[in-house]
Structures are given as C-alpha cells and as structure tokens.
From TrEMBL, chain B:
InterPro entries: Ribosomal_bL19, Ribosomal_bL19_sf, Translation_prot_SH3-like_sf
Pfam families: Ribosomal_L19
Keyword tRNA-binding part of the UniProt annotation: no
Annotated keywords: Ribonucleoprotein, Ribosomal protein
Cellular component terms (Gene Ontology): ribonucleoprotein complex; ribosome
Full protein name: Ribosomal protein L19
Sequence similarity: Belongs to the bacterial ribosomal protein bL19 family.
A GO molecular-function descriptor: structural constituent of ribosome
Domain of life: Eukaryota
Keyword Ribosomal protein: yes
Organism (species): Amborella trichopoda
GO process annotations (BP): translation
NCBIfam families: rplS_bact
PANTHER family according to UniProt: LARGE RIBOSOMAL SUBUNIT PROTEIN BL19M, RIBOSOMAL PROTEIN L19
Length: 122, 194
C-alpha cells in the first residue's frame, strides 16, 4: 500500500537509491499502489556519477511491498521492504539489472523486460 | 386406543436422546413394528423438550383445545447440526488429500525444502528452502507461513498446507523454538537456519 510520501528502495542499477512516491498513476485517483502499479516519484538519494540525479521526477513500477500480495491459489506473499524499478514512459526499465525476486504478476501487466532481467520470479 | 408399547420407549427424556436410535431398533424386533412406524413419525422429531414426556406426545385424535401446552424448546440432534456435518466433510477432504501426497508434520522452527508449482513461471520453483514461522490449523484450509532470504530481501509466504501446487515438502532440520509464531525473526538479520 504505497501512497504519496512513501519512501521506496530502488531494485535496479539505474542510479537512484531511494525514491519518494508523489503520485499514483491511474485514471480513478487511486489512494494506494500495490505491486505492479506505476507511480510518479522523486529521487531522494542517488548513486554519484550516474544519469539519474537527486530530486529528479521519474516514473517507477512497484515490485515489492510490505503489504501482502494475495493470489487466487491461496498463496500470500509479503516482502520485507517496499521497492520499485525505474521505468521510462513506455514501460521499459531504465537500468540494466534488477535485484531481488519479482512477483509473477508483473508479467501479465506487460513488464516482461523486468521479469526477464529478474534473478528469481516468484 | 391404547398407546402402543413402542411409543413409550420413544417418548423419552432428553438423556436418552442418544439412545433413541437403539430404542427404534428394539422396536423393529417387535411384532407390532409395522403398526408403530406407520402410526407415528411425527413425535420422533419433536421429542426434544425438557419439560417432560407427558407434554410432548400429541395424539392426533385426542388433544382438546383446553389443554395448554408449555412452550416447546427445540434443539437439534448433535449429529444433524451443520457444524457436525461440515466437520465430517472437512475430515474427509483432508484424508483424500493425504492419501495422494505425503505431507509431513510441519511445525514452527522447522527448516523445510519445498517444490512448488508456480503457474506464473510455468516451471517448478525447485529449491525453496525456508524456515516455518507459523502454522494455522483450520482443517482443509490449514496454512503455514515460511520465511526465506531472496537476494538479500526477506520474503514471507503463506501456503495452504493441502494446496495442489505444493509438489513436495521435505523437512531438513528442526530448530528448537519456544514459540508457536516466530514473528520475532523479522527483526533479526540472521535467521535461525544459519
């Protein structure tokens, strides 16, 4: 359940370290974002000498939440932190590597590139 | 019309409720069994009041409107209640699953290795080595919670114990814990398994 002002870790090597969510993308003005939702975020902390800099507004897709993700087969998944992957307006990740396990739901939401880069899809 | 003898055995106090089927069996050996069964099927269900036998027998022919009946307190036979029936169904379903697959005893503190079919991945996730941190018993819907470290991030997952997606569960190690729910492991960086 990510909302505005939520800090998120970054799960790729795009150059950002920490993001703060400022807006959830969606026509119905959603209050919370879950795994697979796109958010608009500002970079609060960045790795030096990379294309992305601090206080830059970018879009990201949420890949890990502390709030449980429920599946139809009864399996419930819960991560220990909130994390996102920085993407461009088309939905392609800006980085070249993705860290951590990625939920399989992202594949159905057309984030296939992120899923293919993931070390483990669960 | 004399009350047939079998009627007296049916008009019972609530203590002999459980023995009622037996009394019916006894009646079957009697010569006038046919008469008794065709005569009265009503009171068998309604003899559940606590007030006393004389209040319950309603002879269809003989009640006069002057007799005031005390209020009936109905309660169901325990083996007819929905709760009991659901318990039986649940046990049957659990036994059916246990016949197909061998599901070991899983308790918190066990380190298990499971093979799960993940439909999203279209393949088996083979080595899921995790520590069981909780177990919830609810018949067929029993679930257990496992925790593992994936690429530096802790992941907890709740699985239904009798889920067909779980191919195999193997207990690797049993750690001594003094809790039923090991949620304190979330704060510890180094889970027990190391």
């Amino acid at each position: 359940m990510i909302q505005a002002q939520t800090y998120l870790n970054v799960a790729d090597n795009s150059g950002a370290r920490e993001l703060m969510c400022i807006r959830i993308v969606g026509a119905s003005n959603p209050r919370y974002a879950h795994i697979g939702d796109v958010i608009v975020a500002v970079i609060k902390e960045a790795v030096p000498n990379m294309p992305l800099e601090r206080s830059e507004v970018i879009r990201a897709v949420i890949v890990r939440t502390c709030k449980e993700l429920k599946r139809d087969n009864g399996i419930i998944i819960r991560y220990d932190d909130n994390a996102a992957v920085v993407i461009d307006p088309e939905g392609n990740p800006k980085g070249t590597r993705v860290f951590g396990s990625i939920a399989g739901e992202l594949r159905h939401l057309n984030f296939t590139k992120i899923v293919s880069l993931a070390p483990e899809v669960f | 019309m004399p009350v047939p003898l079998c009627m007296k055995s049916i008009v019972a106090s609530p203590e002999s409720l459980g023995a009622r089927p037996l009394s019916l069996l006894n009646d079957m050996r009697r010569p006038d069994f046919r008469h008794s069964v065709t005569g009265r099927l009503g009171p068998i269900r309604s003899i559940t009041t606590i007030n006393g036998p004389e209040a319950t027998v309603t002879d269809g022919s003989a009640t006069s409107p002057d007799i005031t009946m005390p209020p009936r307190i109905k309660f169901k036979r325990p083996d007819k209640t929905a709760k009991h029936i659901m318990q039986i169904l649940d046990k049957e379903a659990v036994e059916e699953v246990r016949k197909e697959r061998e599901i070991p005893d899983i308790r918190p503190g066990y380190i298990i290795q499971m093979k799960v079919v993940v439909p999203e991945n279209k393949r088996r996730v083979s080595v899921l080595k995790a520590i069981v941190i909780a177990r919830r018993n609810a018949g067929l819907n029993s679930t257990f919670r496992v925790r593992r470290l994936v690429a530096g991030v802790g992941v907890e997952a709740v699985y239904p114990l009798y889920s067909p997606n779980i191919m195999e569960i193997k207990v690797l190690d049993k750690k001594k814990v003094r809790r039923a729910k090991l949620y304190y492991l979330r704060d510890k960086i180094n889970p027990l398994k190391k």
